[in-house]
Structures are given as C-alpha cells and as structure tokens.
Structure prediction request, 182 residues.
Amino acid sequence: MGLNCHDTAEIYLRNVFVPEENLIGTENAGFYQLMRFFNESRVGVASIQLGMAIGAYERALEYAKQRTAFGKPLIEHQAIQFKLADMWKDIEAARLLTYKAAWLIDSGKPNPALSSAAKLFASETAIKATYEAVQIFGGYGYSKEYDIERYYRDARVGTIYEGTSEIQRLIIARVIAGKIRF
Ligand SMILES: Cc1cc2nc3c(=O)[nH]c(=O)nc-3n(C[C@H](O)[C@H](O)[C@H](O)COP(=O)(O)OP(=O)(O)OC[C@H]3O[C@@H](n4cnc5c(N)ncnc54)[C@H](O)[C@@H]3O)c2cc1C
Prediction:
C-alpha cells in the first residue's frame, strides 16, 4: 500500500545454529531484550509519523492559501480552518509526547508507557493529518500529480508496525495498573 521505497518480506528461521561468539545479549533472555529495544524503536517510529503529519500539514496549509473556491482562498472557509487548526493542535501534542519519550531515553530512564503513547498518538495523528490533507487538496489530493496521496498511503502503516495501536494501549494500561515495572 505504501512505503514503496522500502522492501518488506517475511523471513523464516528454522534449525538455525548461532555460534556463541555471535550471540547478542544473554541466551534465553531475547524476549525481554527485544521489549527494551521497543522502548527506543517506538519513539523512532513516532518521529517518522510526526514528520509525515508535519509534511502533510505544511503542504495542505500552502495549498489552502493558494487555491480559490467560491470567490475566496480555501483558508478563508471556516470548515478548512478547523481542519488545519486540528492538524496543528494534534501535531504539537504528538511532538511534545515524542520529545518527552526521547528525552527520557537520553536520560537513561526509558518509560515504556510514554514510548507507547508517543508511537500511538503520533501514528494516529499522521493518519488523521494525511486524511485531512487529501481532503483539502480535493481531487488533486487523490491524484498522483501531487505527492499528498503518497503521504496518506505511507502514514497508514504507523498504527500497525512496531506493535499495533491496540498493543500500545495494552502496554499503557499494564504500566498504569502497575503490571509492568521498569
Ligand atoms: C511495512 C511493514 C513492515 C514491517 N516490518 C517488520 C519488521 O521489520 N520486523 C518485524 O518483526 N515485523 C515487521 N512487521 C510486522 C508487524 O510488526 C506486524 O504486522 C504487526 O505487529 C501486527 O501483527 P500481525 O500482522 O501478526 O497482526 P495480528 O497480531 O494478527 O493482529 C490483527 C489485529 O488484531 C489485533 N490484536 C492482536 N492481538 C490483540 C490483543 N491481544 N488485544 C487486542 N487486539 C489485538 C491487532 O492490533 C490487529 O488490529 C512489518 C509489517 C509491515 C506492514
């Protein structure tokens, strides 16, 4: 559907022997090591999604200033102003969550709930922002003449990979219930 510059394929590993010198981390602790890795990688995905939301917002804002419909620029129609205001508001909130989660990692105190919240919120923001950007571009939003349709397709995977939005909510719920300690 999207991310066409990035090859995706399934890999099966069967009867693989890993020599001791190639072992990463501690034997039989891979699951927990991977979960710690997700604390960081999810903030990376949040950043990618935030960038897509900003890109779609900036393009939609410029287009809304240039395109005239019913005698005035799109940006002077209140329905369009509300879309842009919501995009801006969600982007600022996603930015703060992402920066806070990243700052905690840099400070040596990663917080799984915040990493999940940043990934969840930024990816849902990217989907909403790219959806509304397509709407603001109208027919051109659906056409390949502008790159806004690509933003829309590329953003969609954000709530799926690196753990779905449902799984991010489960992690947040487990942290606030005291079931995950870190
Ligand atoms: C472009 C792309 C790149 C990817 N890259 C990688 C990669 O590099 N490495 C890698 O390992 N994987 C990768 N994936 C796989 C990705 O992480 C999984 O697709 C994703 O985690 C969802 O798993 P699934 O597809 O098996 O869906 P399923 O687990 O079958 O889930 C289907 C639906 O059910 C929901 N669901 C499942 N379990 C629960 C539950 N307990 N409670 C509530 N809802 C639930 C899910 O949220 C989802 O909505 C990639 C996927 C894509 C599309």
User: Anything to note?
Assistant: The longest strand covers residues 68-69. The helical segments are 30-66, 78-106, 112-137, 139-142, 148-155, 165-176. The CA atoms of residues 63 and 137 lie 7 Å apart.
